[in-house]
Predict the 3D structure of the following.
Amino acid sequence: MVFKNLWVSLDLQKRVILILFIVIFPVSLILSAVTSRLFIPAFYDELKQLGLAQAQVLQNQIETRKLWARTNPRESVEDVFQRLMYAQPTILRLDLIRLNEKKIPYIFASSLENPETEELPRPGLVTQVEVFQREEDDVPVWQILMPVKWSGELMNLQVMVSLKIVRTLRGGITRVNIFGALASAVLLVLLLNFFLRRAIQNEQDLKRAQASNELLQSQLLELQREWIQIEKLAAMGQLTAQFAHEIGTPLNAMSGHLQLMRHQLPEFLDQRAKIIEGQIQKIEKIVKNFLASTSRSAAEREWVSVHETMDRVIEVLSPTLHRYEIRIEKHYARQDDQIRIAPVELEQVLFNILNNAIDALKGALDSFRVIQIETRTVMDQGVPMFKIVIQDNGPGLYEGIKGKLFHPFVTTKPVGEGNGLGLSICQQILKSHQGNISVSSLTDSVDHARGLGNSLSGVRVEIDLAKNPS
């Protein structure tokens, strides 16, 4: 698991380097072992043959009297031994062994200074060549015993060939293999580094291109959806403009008859008739403003009291508020609440926001249903803005709708109960007045500093309007 996590954390270049070292080092060790198996025995045999050859040369010289016929044969033999060892560093020792009068072997001549203290290889003399391996001062040697005859006397020539050079050679081969493995790995990394960099760069470029392509595709799909919505809005605008022309005449007739009826109604009904007449006038203004906007003329702006407009909207919605037992808590700012805006458009924005809050509270199980309204003046980059905050204690927003609140035709209502144009239209109206709107979902947030006093878990809507837009 640790190796897997380490492998996942490495990039392509580091993975290749790790693979090279993992592969090369075991291979180098195997090659070292194979080399030792194949070549070290050959070196051993080569040194044995060297010792036998030197022993045969000495045997020939003794038997042909080239060494023995001199005045002092012992000195002559030892002198030849010294010269031969100087010429062949691998020869560790040379001895000539004879039998004394009691037929006991002793070292007659030797390359050593005190051969008498040395132990003989065997109690007797050999009659044929014998070769065996032994340790001499912790150094492996070939010990060669060769029979020598002179005037009928049997002697033995002892040659010891050191194998230390083979041990040194084995260590050298191992070190060379390890160094070769390191050098090969470094060389391969250097050679492949350029290609790895190019491959990694190409891979990164491909990933960036894929990410850019996916982003462009998503943007294209979003633009296609927006274009479809724009076409729907354009078609709806044409139909609505035609519809507005058609309903204008009956609205005027209704308003005229209602004015005549007010003179014949009791006082308590006259108040209700006045409200109805105000709503008919509002419809007439909306129709006129809509027709004006479709003909590219801006709605007329005037100085309007936000608090008075809010109270009128609440009065219109009061029957629905009473029916669902929804309480309105108002926390109006003490500052001047006058802003320059088209009154009908401000009423339309406030009506949409409050109506959405009422719809959210209709299905709330909690018997305590409240909509809190707060207003205040703030400064945004030196520009005085009038802020309106409307929040409820309804169920809040679900995740799938949060990013689509201001898209046209997006609604949380069942099919047939809403067209989803409320927030989209509000946003367009506010932007035309240098304003903004934001919607967020509350989670047990308590605003004690502003004196709201209640814990809400519904939706919070913030509206910012320039007091005197340009």
Residues 300-466 form a domain with the Heat Shock Protein 90 fold (CATH 3.30.565.10). Residues 444-456 have pLDDT under 50 and may be disordered. Residues 164-262 form the longest helix (99 residues).
